[in-house]
Amino acid sequence: MAAKLRKAIRKNLFVIITLVLSAGILLYFLFTTDGIVALGEIVLKLKPQWLFLSILSAVLCWVLEGFVLNLLCIHLYPQWRFGRSFSVGMIGFLYSAVTPFSTGGQPMQIYTMRKMGMDTGKAGSIIAVKTLTYQVVMVLYSLVLVAMKLHFFQTSVSNFSFVTIIGLITNSTFIVLVMLFMISEMTTDKIVKTVIRFLHYLKLCRHPEERYARIHNQLEIFHDASKLMGKSTRLYVVVMSVTVVQITLNSLIPYFIYRSFNMNAAPITTMVAAQAFVAMVSAFVPLPGASGGAEGSFYIFFGMFFKSAIIPAILLWRIITYYFNILFGGIFAYVAEKKYNDPIVSEPNE
User: Which residues does 313 contact at the CB level (< 8 Å), separation at least 6?
Assistant: First the structure.
């Protein structure tokens, strides 16, 4: 029994360290401020219907993740079923939550789809297209919100313009490079090489050849994916539309938590914008689950709304948007391994 326990701990050591780190940050906030006192006061006045809506929004985000994946999967494999796609989506949430820069989600999704019988190249194409469409929608979504709420956050959040502009430029540059690579691989190569040489000249890039190879390989993945998936405009429009709904639901979670605290002064659009900015800032944090960065950015953007209740708000928000992903992602990873260990037998669309 002890040997099995030690083996399980060694196997999941990284996940355990991640959870301990994130939980430690939350406990630090609670016990080094008045957070624990505020939490006790809020629990007595909590409005359960609004808290239920915040949890429901998170669950619907999971469902829509599976739905989008299923749309892309059945485009290549008509007999693919939603249950498989939902499990793959939850596995993505799980491993994105426990790996630095959320880098483990997509490879584990491809690995899982391969075990379910999907061709590795086609699985990679589906995940690549899903990732790209999400990034495109997220950047456009953030641009609209920046245009709507720029003045408010500029006057309310210190260094807001710097953080937002860096985030938008970084994400937009990657998307533009991918799009350009799909149109002209030669032109993109020249641009990437020129930029890397310039950065190397400024002593900002120590190994230009290795950096170019990594960028080129990543761009090629999206290029190959676009050829495999084809040019189905209707499919991409539906996928992007559903992604807009998914991002909106995720951005509504802090507002529902806010209302569950019996607060109602802040406009819903402003809080949705704040959550979009939190998501963008958190993406720069290299720790698993953006630990520290997620809590810090939430504190910066939402402190003006929650005031003395900000620490309990962070606690509830992280439980719903992070710890639930790990808990239920782990459950569905186990279910997928047991239930979908029989590879699909249908031939993919060509």
Answer: 254, 257, 258, 261, 298, 302, 306
What's the total number of domains in the chain? 1
Q: Residue 21 domain-assigned?
A: no
The series of mean pLDDT values per 10 residues for the chain, 350 residues long, is 56 61 63 59 79 96 96 89 93 83 75 86 84 86 81 73 66 71 70 78 73 73 66 87 96 95 90 86 60 76 88 88 89 82 58
287-313 as b/e: b if 16+ CB within 10 A: bbbbbbbbbbbbbbbbbebbeebbbbb
pLDDT of amino acid 243: 96
pTM of the model: 0.79
Q: Is residue 123 domain-resident?
A: yes
CB of 47 within 8 A of CB of 260? yes
Cα dihedral sign for 9, 12, 14, 17? negative
CA distances from 176 to 61, 108, 139, 217 (A): 27, 26, 11, 16
CA distance 250 to 321: 8
The rounded Cα 113 to chain-centroid distance in angstroms is: 19
**Residue 16 within any structural domain of the chain:** no
Give the residue carrying structure tokens 């860096």. 166
Print the domain residue range for 233. 33-339
Asked if the structure places residue 349 within a domain, the reply is no
